[in-house]
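re: ur question from the group chat, yeah i did fold both. here u go
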Amino acid sequence: MYVEMAENKGKSRLHQQIDENLKRVYEEALTEEIPDRFKDLIARLRSKEGGQ
């Protein structure tokens, strides 16, 4: 039973580390600048939508 508890604690810590890393990567992605080529593409798509 002690071994199971230790394994669960290890998995729990592993899951916590994964969660922390995913949150960090997500936070970093939110602060990234949108590339100009995507801004241009969005502008072209919007202009086509308005023209229909």
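okk and heres the other one u asked abt
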Amino acid sequence: MPNLTLDSLQSTIVDDVRRALAEDVGDGDITASLIPAERQADGRIITREAAVFCGRAWADEVARQVDPRISIEWLVNDGDTLLADQTICRFNGPARGLLTAERSMLNFIQLLSATATRSRHFADLVAGTSVKLLDTRKTIPGLRLAQKYAVTCGGCHNHRIGLYDAFLIKENHIAACGGIAQAISRAHEIAPGKPVEVEVESLEELKQALEAGADIIMLDELSDEDMRTAVALNAGHAKLEASGGITETTLRSVAETGVDYISIGSMTKDVKAVDLSMRLRFQAAD
């Protein structure tokens, strides 16, 4: 499946930010109202730790929706490597707006940068191999597209977006349909042209999936030896994806079996927020 691009996410970003502000600001920031409306401020956001940056479009949209008079000067781009104590942007505008926008801006940047950072870590582990690392549907509810975009900023790739854009036929689907061949055949009938992936748990099931014309075959918790055999049996007919039980320790050896893809759920579900700080300086009242 193709990777998400920022251009394709414009309406998503607006919606993400609208939801975030609705839950945080509600009908108004009562604490920011302590500050005189005419008071201005400037400041910067710094990262306290090394990371891969992602999220500037979301932060820009927070500023736009809170107060369009807020101006942000970005010093980094999505995908850039950050050093500890690095300034990532400078800003100025009405103090009330900046205080109201602060938490939502930081929330988006710290989560998406964390996702990009973890993705870069995994990408570095398989550097020099031909494998592509894929994300999964194990994302934070409501922020799937944002996290999947962040994955690409870290150098990894997007799997299917949801349950609607590609088939992924697993054990229970196979059982309900009466077999691998029947499930794949039915998928081709229901949605011609949609990618059809099937999960297999043995080399025998791999052969069945190949004979039935699967586009992608997921090798679920096969040994490295069996995956190498699967690559030979496949001979380039379908794309092979390794999944299940793969850790940072075993990732490189799986990549070296020759599979096309490895999917990793922890890329999006086991992230640790990047430590950020927004520092404000209030301008003197006239």
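fwiw on the second one: The chain has a mean pLDDT of 96. The CA atoms of residues 31 and 232 lie 65 Å apart. idk if thats what u expected
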